[in-house]
Every structure is written in C-alpha cells, then in structure tokens.
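Please produce the structure of this protein holding MF3.
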Amino acid sequence: MLVPKTQEEIELLRLNNDLVSRTLAEMAKIIQPGITTKKLDRVAEEFIRDNGAEPGFLGYGGYPATLCTSVNDEVVHGIPSTYELRDGDIVSVDCGTYLHGYYGDSAYTFTVGEVSPEVQRLLKVTKESLYKGVEVAIEGLRIGDIGYAIQSHAEAHGYSVVRELVGHGLGRDMHERPEVPNYGNRGRGPKLVSGLVICIEPMINLGKKHVYQEDDGWTIRTLDGKPSAHFELAVAVEKGKADVLSTFRYIEEVLQNKN
Ligand code: MF3
Ligand code: CO
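Below is the modeled complex.
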C-alpha cells in the first residue's frame, strides 16, 4: 500500500518543483557552446539559494554538486566539471531543491548549438514518452501502466529503455516508495492512489539499453557510446488526470525566444 500526500504537502512539493522548473529555465538561458557544466552548476546553486531554498542533490548520498549534467552518452548523474559544452552536444540537466522539509526534482535534456536531426528526434520521443507516462498516472491504474506507456512509445521508435535506473516517490525524502520503472506490463505493480507523488523520468537510449557506471562512482553511460536522453517531471496522482507539479513551460518559453 502506497502512502498519499495531504493537500498541504502537495502544495509544498509544488513550491519546490516550481522552483526546480524555474532553475532549469535559467539553464536554458545560458546553455551554449563554450559554457562549462561547472558554470551551470554555480548559476543553479545561486538561483536556488536566492529563492530561499537549498540544493536538493548537494550532499545527498555524498553527491558533490547542485546539478547532474549528463552529456551525450552520459545517461544520468554526470558531475559538473570544467568540460565545455560543444556545438552538437546534448546535455541532461537534472536539478533538485529542498525547501520547507520537502524535495523538488526534475530534469530536461537541452541541445547545444546545432544538433543532428537523429538526436533531436531522440529528445522529442523521450519527452513524448514522459508525457505518455504522465497521462496514465491516475487513480486506479498501476505502476506497470506507467512503465508500459513509456516503454511502448520509446520502443515503437526503435529506441531502448534503461533498466537500472527508475523514477521514484517524492516527499520528505528525494527517493521514496514506489520505484517507477520506465518499462513494465499493463495492470501490474502497486496501485496508484490519489495524492501519491511520484517522479517519472524516462532515460531513453538511441542505441542499446545497456549502461555502466564510471569510476567516479556516479556517472552512468551507455555501453555502446550512443546518446541518451532524460526528462523528469514530478506529478501527484489524481482521479482522471495527474496534477503535474513541475513544468517545462518556463524552459520552453526561453528556448522559443532563443531560436
Ligand atoms: N534526479 C536524480 C534521481 O532521481 C537525483 C540525483 S541523485 C543525487 O535519481 F544523488 F545526485 F542527488
Ligand atoms: Co528523480
């Protein structure tokens, strides 16, 4: 049995996830060839603190930064560094906050300069897969319905779903029950109840599904070296339609004005 949040808790989670969404929009403004992932990290940390919150990832399980910045074949948990983003790269920026005793957690994969149509399509389909998952995050369905929706959309386009990393419940802890795999079978797994808050975060590979962890103890990469995309939203399960607590609206407004 999964524990739903009260409406008060959902509002605190909304506050956190809205701040994460606005922080990611700040990243959208400055991502361009030549900027280092460390610079992104510093700007994000400052923005979060200026808004009265703390970075949610910094120190979490010993993680050393505010953001995870995962470039190209890096799937997730890339550590910000002196690497300068290059024309044609993609970078998943995953961000967390901690405010009023609750966490925020969302991610968006950005393009840097001109990205090949093949990779742009991977990003589009990964984001669509996330929305397919959100559509079925409704009372009465099950965790397996979310995984099924994501997996079938991604695989229909010839992509593969990472198995080792999954979405999760979100609340007073960043990783709560249940696990939310991006693959699965319809009608299987724990039942979704109204008020349950989960992060849905497909990690979709252009090539094969296999990944490995680097010697830094964090960075996850594709085994075949092909690119991987990652998008994450926090949602509260409700009857008929999920209450989406984070948003890509701020990011996409910035990107529209950029191009
Ligand atoms: N968004 C990531 C996740 O849910 C959190 C990064 S883990 C951290 O898996 F340790 F870096 F914080
Ligand atoms: Co997450």
